[in-house]
Design a protein that fits this description.
By secondary structure, the protein is mainly β. It has two domains: about 140 residues, no CATH class; about 270 residues, Distorted Sandwich (Beta-galactosidase, Chain A, domain 5). The chain contains five helices and 27 strands. The strands form six sheets. It has a nine-stranded antiparallel β-sheet. A five-stranded antiparallel β-sheet has the order 3-2-9-8-27, with no helix packed on it. Strand 12 and strand 13 form a beta hairpin. The longest helix is centred in the N-terminal third of the chain and has 18 residues. The radius of gyration is 22 Å and the shape is globular. The chain binds calcium ion (4 copies). One calcium ion (CA) binds next to strand 5.
Length: about 475
Amino acid sequence: MPKYQRWMLTLLVGGAIAVLAAACNYSYAPFSDRVDSPVVMTAADVGVANLNLNPARALAYRWDGDGGSWVQIAVQIDERHVVDFGSRPSTNSQSGAVGTVYGTSPTGTTALQYSDPNTWVGADPDPTFDANDELVFMARDAGPRAPAGTVHPSPAIGGLGKEIVLSDPDGGDPGYVYLFYGGAGVDPSAGLDLVDYHFVLDSGSYRPNYKRADGPNPESSTVTTDTYSMGLSDRWFTVDLDLGQGDILDGHKSQFALNFCGRSNQTFANAHGAFAANIDGPVRAIRSYIGANSGPLTQRTEIFYDTRYESITDLRVHSIPGIMSFLDLNASAIGMNYRSSTMASAVTIDGAPDSVPAATPDWFYAHGNQGYLTRTFDVTSSFNAPSAQVFLDDTNPPDDECWGDGSYFGAGGVHFNERLPNTDPDNGFAATFTATEVTSFWSPNLNPDVWTPTWAAQATQPLTTSSTNF
Ligand SMILES: [Ca+2]
Ligand SMILES: [Ca+2]
Ligand SMILES: [Ca+2]
Ligand SMILES: [Ca+2]
């Protein structure tokens, strides 16, 4: 977008966005309209992979051009390592050992996972900030360029500094964030805690109690930020979303097809599975798990930021007839408007069916007094995967809902409606299929028809980064 249009947009929506992000009270805040956007860099991206740095000593700063001083911003490092999946245990009482996701013997099939000392994945064998570990901060915290030769902030040691330049692929002014290395006892969070994730397994702590062979495994887990709260009641059961006016979500639902309940979130949770990671950091929380019936390695990784919920699904299953994913709201969403990019205008969520085009949308929104959520749905696959729009609004659906409240309220998403090839690496040659759903939460004061397409373009085109010594 040209700079003047961006400026106009900022005028248009900036007031409402500012309510969500107190961090943007600077005269130079080039990404103040990307309030929800993280910046994720590996140690390799930062250029410090082989320095044996302690992840607990990362420091991030913006330069305050008005005050001529450093301002610390929140940064988080999430370690990762390549780990074998193992295979599903034969019984719930089978003992586990650290080193595979299932905690069973290795099979030779591996993937890069978020490290977690509390699951069978375990801690990263390399405790330093190594090449595949991720550093994350929020784009909105970027500031102006610090003058060359500016003395490093006082907690920094060792003379090591990196200037991170953030650029919007569409152009516009760059933003700058500065990374330093602190001494023992520094606080990478800058005293902030943007996300609160409580993984609460009703049966007790994870390793001794999780039924890896045969669920369910009821949870009372929650994610809470200043903008939203979510509830999660098992693997594949993301069932509550409150944007400040009460829970409006029936469930984030995944199944082969409508009226096909042989496989759904419920059967996934009722069978074998395991957690890879549960991480609650200052910038983001990560909840990652595997196990979806005959796709025992199928994985969902949910990443929670303070105004954004990301869901990344890696199919690893034999050939299946199709797959769909949608957010089914509940009766509390009645009265909200719903629109996707392939719908000419919004429809009302009221449980009365609406006619919508089949064409797969790039974005969706639901907007009303209950809140405002925007969504994108992107798939990266090694094969052509035809798809169609899902939109269900029906208090008397003709098909079996499988689980939930018996109705569809503004249930929008995508259906990959032709047969998918094998994606399970334990089952011969495997294609790949990764679905990324990004949902962000905004003030209802914004005009959704104006803001959603702009946001969607940003959400699908992250800022680029480069790192140089400072
Ligand atoms: Ca690592
Ligand atoms: Ca590491
Ligand atoms: Ca309707
Ligand atoms: Ca429902």
